C-alpha cells in the first residue's frame, strides 16, 4: 500500500496538478487585485457603487415583511474574474505552448521530408557507371 502511494505521488501528473493549483491561486490573487483596483472603480463611475458587490442590486419585499436583495453585480464580478484568469492562463501558458508544439511538429515534418537514401542496387549501379567511365577515359 505504501509503495503504491509513493508511486502515485511521484507520478508526473500529480506534480503537474499541484503546480497548476498553486499557479492558479496566484493568478486568482492577481486578478482579484486588478478587479478591485481597476474594474471596480470603472463600474463605480457608471453605477454609483464602490464595487461590483454593490452594483446592480435589486431589493424586493418578502412575504414575511423583510427584504431580499439580488446582487447581479456579484455575478458580473465573478464572470469578469473568470474571464480575466482564463485570458492570463491562455496568454501565458496555452499560446506559448501551442507555438512550441507547432515548431516541434514542423521540425519533425521537415526531418521526415528528407530525400530517401538510395538503395543498395542504385549505389552499385552508380559505382559500375563510374568504373565504366574510368575505363573509357
Brief rundown of the structure:
With 137 residues, this protein is mainly alpha-helical.
Chart the SSEs and their pairings:
Elements: H1 2-10, H2 12-47, E1 57-61, E2 67-71, H3 72-112, H4 120-136
Helix pairs in contact: 2-3
Fold and architecture overview:
The chain has a single domain (about 1-135), classed as Non-ribosomal Peptide Synthetase Peptidyl Carrier Protein, Chain A. The protein has about 140 residues and is mainly α. The longest helix is centred in the last third of the chain and has 41 residues, at about 70-110. Strand 1 and strand 2 form a beta hairpin. The protein has helices at about 1-10, 10-45, 70-110, 120-135, and strands spanning about 55-60, 65-70. The termini are far apart. The chain has a two-stranded antiparallel sheet with strand order 1-2. Helix 2 crosses helix 3 (about 70-110).
CATH topology: Non-ribosomal Peptide Synthetase Peptidyl Carrier Protein, Chain A
Task: List low-confidence stretches.
Answer: none
Strand content: 5-15%
* SSE pattern, N- to C-terminal: HHEEHH
- Secondary-structure-based class equals mainly alpha
Q: Give helix % range.
A: over 70%
Major sheet characteristics: 2 strands, antiparallel
Number of helices: 4
Kindly provide the radius of gyration, computed on alpha-carbon positions and rounded to a whole number of angstroms: 33 Å
Which homologous superfamily in CATH is the superfamily? Large-conductance mechanosensitive channel, MscL, domain 1
Provide the CATH top-level class.
Answer: Mainly Alpha
Domains, number = 1
Q: What general form does the structure show?
A: elongated
Known CATH architecture: Orthogonal Bundle
Distance between the termini: 81 Å
Widest β-sheet, arrangement of strands: 1-2
